[in-house]
Amino acid sequence: MITITINGVPREYPKGITYEEIAREYQPQCKDMIALVLENGKIRELIKTAEKDCELSFLTIRDKIGHKTYVRTGLMTLVKAVYDVLGGEKVEKVKVEFAIGQGYYCNVKMNEKLTCGHVDKIRKRMQELTEKDLPITKKSYPLDDAMEIFKAYKMYDKVKLFRYRRSSFVNIYNLDGYYDYYYGYMLPSTGYLKYYDVMLYENGILLLIPGSEDPTKLDFFQPREKFFNTLMTSTHWGEMMGIDSVGDLNDTIRDGRINDMILVQEALQERRIGEIAREIVDRGNVKFVLIAGPSSSGKTTFSHRLSIQLRTYGMIPHPIALDDYFLDRENTPRDEKGDYDFECLEAIDIKQFNEDMNRLLKGEKVELPQFNFKLGKREYHGNYKKLGPEDILVIEGIHGLNPATTFSMPNESKFKIYISALTSLNVDEHNRIPTTDGRLLRRMVRDARTRGTCARRTVEMWPSVRRGEEKYIFPFQESADEMFNSVLIYELAVLKQYAEPLLFGIGKEEAEYHEAKRLLKFLEYFQGIDSKNVPSNSICREFIGGSCFNV
Question: Does 195 share its domain with 70?
Answer without folding.
Answer: yes
